Amino acid sequence: MSERTDVNDPNRPNELHDIRVMVVDDHPMWRDAVARDLAAAGFDVVATAGDGPEAVRRAHAVTPDVLVLDLNLPGMPGVQVCKELVGANPALRVLVLSASGEHADVLEAVKSGATGYLMKSAGAQELIDAVRRTAAGDPVFTPGLAGLVLGEYRRLATDPLPAASDEPKAPQLTDRETEVLRLVAKGLSYKQIAERLVISHRTVQNHVQNTLGKLQLHNRVELVRYAIERGLDDA
After folding, report:
1. Of 11, 54, 191, 209, which has the fewest beta carbons less than 10 angstroms from its beta carbon?
2. Bridge partners of 119?
3. How many CB atoms lie within 10 A of CB 227?
4. Is the pTM of this model over 0.70?
């Protein structure tokens, strides 16, 4: 990280102190630099880890809000770390920070539960903003990758989700939940949805969480897939 953030900057948001962050990378100098930049910006950096198994153990112990995760880890791939931790705690937000811009890596990370994907060429301020937005539940991607991910959502929608044989009738969403779901499927961030509907960011998050619960889905990837299958992105 080349840019630096002034820890005494009076414009630094105080709410960052409430965001618990863990940094996982197998390169000590890079890992320490990222953790230092985030701590200097005001985040509560609760732990770091240098390999996959260590990342899983420490994340279970410290329960971060945001995991800043490299994909290329010894002991266990980053995507497996992501899958295990998000599976155990769906509220966890994962921001992949990787040197790879390969489309396959991006899509695999998102399918494993990552909220966003940022290239390591990003500057410190870009990373800080990405972690803040990730904590808020917004999808954050290096420019050019967001369209790729939305396109994959659409492709996945051609393969129906498996339905349980004893599944009861489809759950009923409220008009507002359906409206929020439609905008999520169009690729809007929670902030953009809040502005569009003239409601608070927290209200948008609550609607999404309620919808996930009603539909028995686990993350935004599954939610968007569900919405696109039902044509809500074209509504």
Report:
1. 11
2. 98
3. 24
4. no
